[in-house]
Amino acid sequence: MKLLCHRRSISLGLLSLFLPTLAFGAGLSDPDDPDLWLKDFTGQTRLWVEVGQPEEKPITKACQKADAVRRDDLDRLLDPAALPAENGWCVLPDGVQYVAIRTPMPDVTGPMVDWWFDWHPRDPLRYRIWHPPAHIDNRVEPPAIPGAKAHWGTVHHPVEDVGTGVVHARIAFQPPTAMGFSTDALDDPRVATIVCGWAGDDTRHVRHTPMVHVFLRDGDGVVLRSVFWLGAVLRPDLPGALGDAAGKLVNRPWVRRRMLPADIAPGLARHCAEEYANLATLLPELYATQR
């Protein structure tokens, strides 16, 4: 397996804490070797880690506002036909910061993804290994009523840094129809699975972002479309009608600008591309050995 992590001075120390059997390789001086590796008792390399800044890729570029997928047109994400902007970010006229990332995952299947989102939040170490050192901690609240998929109705509380500082996030996972899709796509031959929900901030006690990951079937694997509308649904964590009323008051462009870091969109674009590229590497073997 080969993982990418950035911010070299942090990642070496953290990885050695998370995985005590990791050993330093020659990659810091020899580009053909890993910086860190994990070998099993047979001597086979099980984990290959590269640290340092990744090369610049199209994920860092802006996209045209007109090419952003509208939140009232989510079913467009279910169509495998190319989108005008599969990768990029922009700020929409209402102040919402839009991020779209496309990630090929050639050896991953829908059942693997569904299992991962049920399995990994049960132990913070699993979340950290997904994208060290950006992923710091996580815990999960089980659903009040179990859904067709194990992660539906769960609430994750990840602590992470997408490049703008550590945040204590809150992600309430939902069935796709609860987010605005016309279907949960359980029987759609084009769709392996969909993982989506409302992202928010545990420190500020506010929900703010619809988040959608659509895993489209592609040969023996999947292609992932990830889309975020940062700040699109500002709503304080208040009960019922009180929270709805407060949400109507705060859903303003100037509130979004004050609440969200100006560089959150490119930072999240890079983070998303890195973490799901890592997951494409980790998941097949984890599914085979840990399920």
Report on this model:
There is one protein chain. This protein has 291 residues and is an alpha+beta fold. It has 2 domains: 2-50, no CATH class; 59-290, START domain (Alpha-D-Glucose-1,6-Bisphosphate, Chain A, domain 4, 2-Layer Sandwich). It has helices spanning 8-18, 110-119, 124-130, 176-179, 240-250, 253-259, 264-290, and strands at 2-4, 23-24, 36-39, 45-50, 88-91, 97-105, 135-137, 140-141, 155-156, 159-161, 166-174, 191-201, 206-218, 221-230, 235-236. The strands form 2 sheets. Strands 5, 6, 7, 8, 9, 10, 11, 12, 13, 14 and 15 form an 11-stranded antiparallel β-sheet that branches. The protein has a 4-stranded mixed β-sheet with strand order 1-4-3-2. A hairpin with a 5-residue loop joins strand 5 and strand 6. It is globular and about 50 Å long. The two termini are 18 Å apart. The model is unreliable at 6-20, 26-31 and 51-58 (pLDDT under 50).
Produce the secondary structure layout:
Blueprint: E1 2-4, H1 8-18, E2 23-24, E3 36-39, E4 45-50, E5 88-91, E6 97-105, H2 110-119, H3 124-130, E7 135-137, E8 140-141, E9 155-156, E10 159-161, E11 166-174, H4 176-179, E12 191-201, E13 206-218, E14 221-230, E15 235-236, H5 240-250, H6 253-259, H7 264-290
Parallel strand pairs: 1-4
Antiparallel strand pairs: 2-3, 3-4, 5-6, 6-14, 7-10, 8-9, 9-11, 10-11, 11-12, 12-13, 13-14, 13-15
